[in-house]
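WARN retry 2 of 3 for item q-0093 after timeout on previous attempt; input resubmitted unchanged.
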Amino acid sequence: MSRVPWQQILSFTPADLVKLLISAAIIVLVNKVQLFNDRLSALLIALPLTSLVAMIWMHQGGQSPQRLANHAEGTFWFVLPTLPMFLILPWMFRHGWGFWAALAVNCLLTVGFFWLTVIVLRRFGIDLMPK
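OK item q-0093 returned
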């Protein structure tokens, strides 16, 4: 991997602040919807809103179609190891696990599933974590 351009990443422009506010507004809106309808908020979160918004920002920032394609494909593969969490976490809550303990265990499981996905996909010629 090449060196991370931290100066470029950590410098904010007015356009970045607009992106931040719009992106945060989506999360707050979904949280507000959850107050009266669990299923509707779950549907809104299940939609790839953050990915779509990120791709819009990438397109507006002049990213190439190839970079957008790489992002979309990577997102598909990276979503797979997170899916078990959405079944394991509710099971844990319904069986008396506390919020923080269940969340911590699910984070660890997701990391494990992530690396398992990376290893399995490498066998099929898909390298999610190139060196």
